[in-house]
Amino acid sequence: MIGILGGTFNPIHNGHLHLAERLQQTLAFEAIRFMPASIPALKDVSNISAEQRAYMVELAIVDHPTFQIDSRELERVGPSYTIDSLISLRKELGDKMSICWLIGSDAFAKLNTWHRWNELLNHCHFVVVKRPLSEELNWNAEVKLLLETHQTNDANTLKNSASGKVLIQEIEALDISSTQIRQHIASKTNVSDAMPSSVIKYIQQHQLYQ
What we know:
alpha/beta
């Protein structure tokens, strides 16, 4: 069973790493792949190249033996759609491998805005990360129906099947955001507690986010 953590990683920070570490401890993935988006369909990252964002991910995960970078979205032309990445992963890993797409509850609440969203569970499970004691999200009707038909509370179900389930996992997240970090760097505020030192050094060397 492998986990996939997609995102812009603009830049990667300790919140991403904490999330992956906790899910690794809880669900015992063989590996967690960090998958930087090349041209995210729903975000603007035009000021930093995809290669720079991916390299920062490589720097951040170098000391984590079960973490890997997956660069397939950087190798495609056009917007990065999750459905295309999942189809590509299936071709690589086969029909029996359990693939879990790791996603925050806020993003999952908007899943029905994703490209070909109703096909995604044909290729993966979703592990939806929710803060403990947080208020229930206001799921829209389409996402609510998806949960009603696909949700499981048994993590073993993910290991025993290749795709098709949604598991909601409560994790205490770190209060860090990439937007906040970019603002801090631009204003020359110290971000040493929010990011690996190797990533900070790279940002400083290349004068990113200034």
